[in-house]
From TrEMBL, chain A:
<feature type="transmembrane region" description="Helical">
    <location>
        <begin position="220"/>
        <end position="241"/>
    </location>
</feature>
<feature type="region of interest" description="Disordered">
    <location>
        <begin position="331"/>
        <end position="352"/>
    </location>
</feature>
<feature type="transmembrane region" description="Helical">
    <location>
        <begin position="35"/>
        <end position="54"/>
    </location>
</feature>
<feature type="transmembrane region" description="Helical">
    <location>
        <begin position="12"/>
        <end position="29"/>
    </location>
</feature>
<dbReference type="InterPro" id="IPR001851">
    <property type="entry name" value="ABC_transp_permease"/>
</dbReference>
<feature type="transmembrane region" description="Helical">
    <location>
        <begin position="66"/>
        <end position="83"/>
    </location>
</feature>
<keyword id="KW-1133">Transmembrane helix</keyword>
<feature type="transmembrane region" description="Helical">
    <location>
        <begin position="172"/>
        <end position="190"/>
    </location>
</feature>
<keyword id="KW-0812">Transmembrane</keyword>
UniProtKB/TrEMBL annotation, chain B:
<keyword id="KW-0812">Transmembrane</keyword>
<feature type="transmembrane region" description="Helical">
    <location>
        <begin position="12"/>
        <end position="38"/>
    </location>
</feature>
<feature type="transmembrane region" description="Helical">
    <location>
        <begin position="188"/>
        <end position="212"/>
    </location>
</feature>
<dbReference type="Pfam" id="PF02653">
    <property type="entry name" value="BPD_transp_2"/>
</dbReference>
<keyword id="KW-0029">Amino-acid transport</keyword>
<dbReference type="InterPro" id="IPR052157">
    <property type="entry name" value="BCAA_transport_permease"/>
</dbReference>
<keyword id="KW-1003">Cell membrane</keyword>
<comment type="similarity">
    <text>Belongs to the binding-protein-dependent transport system permease family. LivHM subfamily.</text>
</comment>
<feature type="transmembrane region" description="Helical">
    <location>
        <begin position="272"/>
        <end position="294"/>
    </location>
</feature>
Length: 352, 304
């Protein structure tokens, strides 16, 4: 039993199972809006978890992750716009309003975008990497702002989404369950990756890239694959978000959105399976609660973020570990695939 | 021809404004190793303080002093309370903490002064135009901005290359640990450098007030362009900041002026304007990506 409680995966399964009851319980508790809020949390959890793959596992500080979130959203929006007008996109790609078409398309577009941006950005490191990923995201942002054909600044509305395998996506509970299911699949994939040889190489890159290179590992290739997988996950989340909001706008890829995704990962706990999910939940719920109290909620949220960064190292997962009084196990004692708290890792000397 | 000259001058004017911000940012980056996203907030604080002082007293001198004092004071408090704790942290923590500061400052200004943009008049003495070339008139105020920017660049050069403090700053940028080991009060040096950077950001904010409207969010707009400048110029290099700032200012202004016109020849007017504005906005980021791919450490790397 003790071992079961220690295993993060058991907590994830329990949490997802409990969450599945939200659409049943919410009407009973007379708060149907909770389902919408929970859907947002689940979608952001997928996006934050995808960022965690590069940020937490590989230590790559990408400041442009919202770009793929937005690309996924626009893939859905643009296909829908062409479905509405009847004209094929670029003259040969027919539009669609079915999620079975638009979701894979969004993931593909996100993956291609991440492959191009990652292939170029990963030639740099450190501060330059942060800035070049930000620069590419800003380029995409301004590109979509300027595309008047797809709404420009005002964005695109998506009205009639086709049912998927008999599921009506206009129904809040159905959409929530769909998103929750995809989150479960995504987290399973992330867990498999973290425990695979590939995941160990990523951890090695974070702890000491030169050592990995000295071992004969082509780190560039591993980092690029991780970058592409992360981009695909964010694009999937973006596509779901557009289905939830029935709207897509360049705001989805604004640099502040990239910042929010980073905050979710940090808030929850870098490099953990459950952390990004908790982080997404806490941040979305915090914004929802604060904006209900005051219009100037950012005035309170800003200092809260500051305090989390300054005093809660390792995020909420780290705080939970500390509260539980568990001493950080020595690095050798960590079971395969499970990451020790960041503080327990032997830090490499920081250069510069 | 006259139009091109005017656009080039506008580009230089944007460039020196960016330089004032980039100089502080690149020093803070290079010496303390801190990514400070809240640098744009100091620019905003300077602009707001000057706008409020100007409307209260009507004096441009008082407005200038108020803007500089407010930005420098807020900057030193931020350094003392927050950034000091972040020097030893990784870039990720710094980005997040200063992101929190941006939310705090933006919403704080809204609480104090509301969301309405403020408009500032050009000071009496600097109104009108001056003939820069036969047939080319250019606003005196913008000429004054360019002059102030170049004077600051000269002043920084003298300060950094010819004084003892400047020597410590240069040493700090290249061999931080060694400076500390030689018994220099690094904390004091850091606070001073940060205060100087905040002062310059405030100066940029004060001078930009009469050209653009003073509004919440003005800091982030220019902040990202400033980062582009710093990265293109080479982190920690003031010379690189000047060169990068003028380059970014010129590229941005010229693209904005000419791309929509070129596009209008091949597509409808309103769509060409929108797409042109977007492509022009992308231009500086493309420039930065290209520079980084060719010279990953920028054009004038300080740690070479």
């Amino acid at each position: 039993m003790r071992n079961l409680l220690r295993d993060e995966r058991a907590w994830v399964v329990a949490l997802l199972a409990l969450a599945a009851f939200i659409p049943v319980l919410a009407p009973m508790l007379d708060s149907p809006a909770t389902v919408g809020l929970a859907t947002r949390i689940v979608i952001y959890a997928i996006a934050a978890s995808s960022l965690n793959l590069i940020l937490g596992h590989a230590g790559l500080v990408s400041f442009g992750h919202a770009a793929y979130f937005g690309l996924g959203g626009y893939a859905v929006g643009i296909l829908y716009a062409h479905y509405g007008s009847g004209e094929p996109f670029l003259g040969f790609i027919p539009g669609s309003n079915s999620l079975l078409v638009t979701l894979p398309a969004a993931i593909l577009v996100g993956g291609i975008g991440a492959a191009i941006i990652g292939a170029l950005s990963l030639r740099t490191a450190g501060v330059q990497f942060i800035m070049i990923t930000l620069a590419f995201a800003q380029m995409l942002y301004f590109l979509f702002v300027s595309l008047k054909a797809y709404g420009g600044d005002d964005g695109l509305a998506i009205r009639r989404v086709a049912p998927v395998l008999g599921m009506n996506l206009r129904d809040a509970a159905t959409l929530f369950w769909l998103c929750l299911g995809l989150l479960a699949v995504w987290l399973f994939l992330m867990d498999r990756i973290a425990r695979s040889r590939f995941g160990r190489v990523l951890a090695g890159v974070r702890q000491g890239e030169r050592r990995m290179a000295a071992l004969g590992v082509r780190t560039y290739f591993y980092k690029l694959v991780a970058f592409v997988i992360a981009g695909m996950g964010a694009a999937m989340a973006g596509a779901l978000m557009v289905n939830y909001l029935r709207f897509v706008s360049p705001d989805m890829m604004a640099w502040t959105k990239s910042g929010e995704l980073m905050i979710m990962v940090i808030l929850g706990g870098l490099g953990t399976l459950l952390g990004p999910v908790i982080g997404a939940g806490v941040l979305v719920a915090l914004e929802y609660t604060l904006s209900g109290i005051t219009e100037h909620w950012q005035f309170i949220e800003g200092p809260i973020l500051l305090l989390v960064v300054l005093f809660a190292r390792g995020g909420l997962m780290g705080a939970v570990r500390q509260l539980a009084g568990r001493r950080a196990p020595a690095p050798e004692a960590v079971p395969a695939g499970e990451l020790p708290p960041r503080d327990a890792l032997p830090e490499t000397a920081t250069h510069g | 021809m006259a139009l091109l000259l005017e656009q080039l001058l506008n580009g230089v004017q944007l460039g020196v404004t960016l330089f004032l911000l980039a100089a502080g940012l690149t020093l803070v980056f290079g010496i303390m190793g801190v990514i400070n996203l809240a640098h744009g907030s100091l620019y905003m604080v300077g602009a707001y303080a000057a706008a409020v002082a100007a409307s209260a007293t009507g004096s441009a001198i008082v407005a200038l002093l108020a803007g500089l004092a407010a930005a420098a004071a807020v900057g030193m408090v931020v350094e003392y309370v927050v950034l000091r704790r972040l020097y030893a942290r990784d870039h990720l923590d710094q980005v997040l903490a200063t992101f929190g500061l941006i939310l705090f400052f933006n919403e704080g200004i809204v609480l104090l002064l509301g969301r309405q943009p403020l408009f500032v008049n050009v000071p009496e003495a600097l109104r009108g135009t001056v003939r820069v070339l036969p047939g080319v008139d250019y606003p005196v105020y913008r000429v004054a901005i360019i002059a102030v920017g170049l004077l600051v660049a000269l002043g920084l050069y003298v300060l950094i290359q010819r004084t003892r403090v400047g020597m410590l700053v240069r040493a700090g940028a290249t061999h931080r640990e060694m400076v500390r080991a030689l018994g220099v009060d690094v904390r004091l040096l850091y606070t001073m450098v940060f205060g100087l950077g905040a002062l310059l950001a405030g100066l940029a904010g004060v001078m930009t007030g009469p050209i653009l409207s003073v509004q919440v969010g003005m800091g982030e707009q220019i902040l990202i362009q400033t980062f582009v400048v710093v990265v293109i110029g080479g982190i920690g290099s003031v010379r690189g900041a000047l060169f990068g700032a003028v380059l970014v200012g010129l590229v941005d202004t010229v693209l904005r002026a000419y791309v929509p016109g070129l596009l209008r020849q091949v597509m409808a007017g309103s769509e060409a304007d929108a797409l042109g504005a977007g492509l022009a906005s992308m231009g500086v980021y493309l420039l930065m990506a290209l520079v980084l791919l060719v010279k990953p450490r920028g054009l004038f790397p300080a740690h070479a």
